[in-house]
Amino acid sequence: FVCHFNVLPVHNELSKPSRRRLHRMVHWTIVIVASLYLSVGIMGFLYTRCQGDHDTPDNILLEFSIDDPLANAGRVGLILTILFSLPLIMVPCRQTL
Fold first, then answer.
1. Segment 36-56 mean pLDDT
2. Whole-model pTM above 0.70?
3. 3-state class of 7 per DSSP?
4. What DSSP string runs through 18-69?
């Protein structure tokens, strides 16, 4: 939900802006993001399948201990994602003022 208002500034930043190049860039961006989401979804599904009868909480990060380095890497990744999405929202708002 944070990329639709960034399309025009990105279009202006292309070296040779054209409608065809913008369509190609948007297409490949969607392919990359969809494949990342699909891989994360498959890994989450496989994780919960391997748990057997164990109930998985709604927030899957609560399932892991505080000492688990991979879980902590996931927590840090989530924090960084939230932190770096804020400028994506603020830059277009600032430019419209």
1. 82
2. no
3. helix
4. -HHHHHHHHHHHHHHHHHHHHHHHHHHHHHHHHTTTPPPPSSGGGGS-TT-H
